[in-house]
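Translate structure to sequence.
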């Protein structure tokens, strides 16, 4: 993988503009028939990787988030990597700088996320997953100054120079897209172009166009831009990274690792304000919500489907409102964890009969409104199981959930919150 990748990168970094354009030009124009293009683009690895979209590998916001990690946090990452080892870069110094400082400086100078540099270090030489590496691999980590079939240039020896070189080229691609609408290799946002796989790709943002300029492969697992996505996703998950979303809304991460960007909605916040006022509740109206039609992973910009797993035995769709015309929703990861714990304890399937309720629907159908109000915040659900009501109640208690009543074989479960006092009723 590294030889193929570095071979291309060396050409992309050091060939003249005319040679590079020729090397990157697609062999044919995109087919006019969209159905034909879709057939050409079949890729089992892509389909098997949740959240991966070859046309939007990573969000622009995440790609350029230079403040995502401090130097100390980069060092901590190298000391304890997602692979359970100490990186070969952890104690390495170059030009009088620790690798962590070189990464932090390159990220700040070129306005790139340090995770981008860390991801490329793993893709190129596996320097994150390895605890030791040869001096050559460390000194020429990104292949800068290493033309095909020739010795690497001493001018570019040193990890600090390599990190700066790689980051500078990523930045130049972004700047070219901003000023000219195209990278040196002809990648543009919104324009289809063929990779070396060959696969058709239509970048949806600048970060994706830059990545394909650097590595013009969709790839397979561990290689190309699919590999970049997989490694980036693993690294981002390791440090719990997610860029701040619109309106300052945070990401919501479920027990399965599925992370979704929440979004602001003035209309929904007003609906909750009115509901709480009508019920005399002192709850604070939420301001950030999940949009079932736009379940975007904040770290990658990939879209999840409603059938994606939020836990081992539950999909997101199972917790959606049982009502038509529902807008944004709330699904608390803590409730998902309780339900999964109950499923494990019961040993049989748990059916979510009714989960999130919009403020309007809650007022229309609520039973014991003060008790079931957490359903409007994604913290409660009505569930059933062939295991029976008593086992559900026992499992809820074991999971640390609160159960307020059992009716018609259904058990109401919500996240037990301090001071809530939600008693368990007899079956």
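Result:
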């Amino acid at each position: 993988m590294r030889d193929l990748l570095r071979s291309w990168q060396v050409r992309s970094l050091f060939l003249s503009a005319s040679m590079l354009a020729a090397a990157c030009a697609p062999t044919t124009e995109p087919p006019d028939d969209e159905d034909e293009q879709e057939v050409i683009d079949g890729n089992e690895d892509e389909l098997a990787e949740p959240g991966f979209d070859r046309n939007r590998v990573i969000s622009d916001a995440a790609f350029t988030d230079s403040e995502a990690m401090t130097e100390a946090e980069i060092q901590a990452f190298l000391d304890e990597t997602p692979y359970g080892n100490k990186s070969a870069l952890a104690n390495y110094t170059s030009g009088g700088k620790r690798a962590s400082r070189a990464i932090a400086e390159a990220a700040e100078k070129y306005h790139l996320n340090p995770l981008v540099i860390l991801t490329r270090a793993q893709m190129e030489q596996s320097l994150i997953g390895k605890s030791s590496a040869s001096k050559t691999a460390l000194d020429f980590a990104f292949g800068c100054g290493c033309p095909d079939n020739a010795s690497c240039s001493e001018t570019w020896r040193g990890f600090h120079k390599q990190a700066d070189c790689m980051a500078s080229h990523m930045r130049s691609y972004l700047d070219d897209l901003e000023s000219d609408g195209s990278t040196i290799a002809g990648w543009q946002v919104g324009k289809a172009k063929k990779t070396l796989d060959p696969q058709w790709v239509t970048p949806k943002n600048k970060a994706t166009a830059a990545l394909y300029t650097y590595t013009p492969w969709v790839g397979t697992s561990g290689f190309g831009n699919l590999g970049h996505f997989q490694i980036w996703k693993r690294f981002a998950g390791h440090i719990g990274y997610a860029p701040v979303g619109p309106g300052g809304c945070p990401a919501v991460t479920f027990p399965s690792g599925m992370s979704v960007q929440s979004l602001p909605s003035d209309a929904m916040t007003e609906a909750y304000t009115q509901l709480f006022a009508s019920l005399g509740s002192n709850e604070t109206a939420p301001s950030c919500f999940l949009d079932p039609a736009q379940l975007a992973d904040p770290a990658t910009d990939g879209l999840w489907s409603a059938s994606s797993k939020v836990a081992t035995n539950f999909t997101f769709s199972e917790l959606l409102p049982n009502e038509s015309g529902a807008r944004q929703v709330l699904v608390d990861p803590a409730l998902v964890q309780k339900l999964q714990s109950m499923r494990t304890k019961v040993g049989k399937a748990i059916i979510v009969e009714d989960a999130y309720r919009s403020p309007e629907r809650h007022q229309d159908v609520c039973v014991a409104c003060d008790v079931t109000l957490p359903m409007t915040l994604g913290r409660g659900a009505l569930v059933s199981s062939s295991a029976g009501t008593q086992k559900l109640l026992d499992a809820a208690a074991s999971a640390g959930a609160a159960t307020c009543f059992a009716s018609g074989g259904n058990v109401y479960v919500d996240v037990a919150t301090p001071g809530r006092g939600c008693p368990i009723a007899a079956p």
